Amino acid sequence: MAVSTKITLILDTREKLPLDFSYSKSVDSVVRKKLDATDYSILGFENKWGCERKAQGDLVNTLLGDHDRFKREMERLKDYDEAYILVEGTHEELAKYCLHFGNGKALNTIYGTLLKYEKHYPVTVQFCKDRRFMSDYIIRKAKEYLEKQNGETHI
After folding, report:
1. pTM attached to this predicted model
2. Cβ neighbour number for residue 78 with a 10 Å cutoff
3. Does 1 fall in a domain?
4. Structural domain boundaries enclosing 119
5. I need a labelling partner for 58 at 20 to 30 A (CA). Which of 24, 39, 73, 84 fits?
6. What is the tens place of the pLDDT at every residue in 19-73?
7. In which order are the strands placed within the sheet that holds 40-42?
C-alpha cells in the first residue's frame, strides 16, 4: 500500500515567475533555495531530480543564442536520476512564436537540440499547455520519483 508523502519542493532563488502549488494537498511547502541546475527540485534530492521551466521566448533565445550556457546546465544534469525541461506552451504555440519573430526555420534546430538533450542526458522535454498543467506535472513526477525512492510500486 502506498504511503502518503507530502512533498517539499525547492524553488530556485533566481526563478522570476514561480509556479503556484498552493492548491495541492500533496505539496507540504515550497522553499526558496539556490539550485545549481534546475528551477524546481525536491527537498533532499536537489542533485538527483529537477525541473527546468522555460518560457517560449527564453527557450528560443537560449537554444539559438546562448546555447553554450544551456549546454553547461545540461552537463550538470548528467548525474541526475531524472530531470525535465518544461516548456510553457504547446508545440503549435512554439511554432507560431518562431514564425511571428521571423524564425520559422529555427524550429527544426530547436527540436533537434531538445531531442539531442533527451538522448544524451537524463532529461525529458514536456510541453505544457498552461502553468497549472506545468505545476500538476511537477507534482506528479515528484510523487512518482519519491515512490520509487521508497520502493513502492503500483499496478
Report:
1. 0.89
2. 12
3. no
4. 7-149
5. 24
6. 999 999 999 999 999 999 999 999 999 999 999 999 998 898 888 887 788 888 8
7. 27-32, 7-11, 40-42, 49-55, 82-88, 123-128
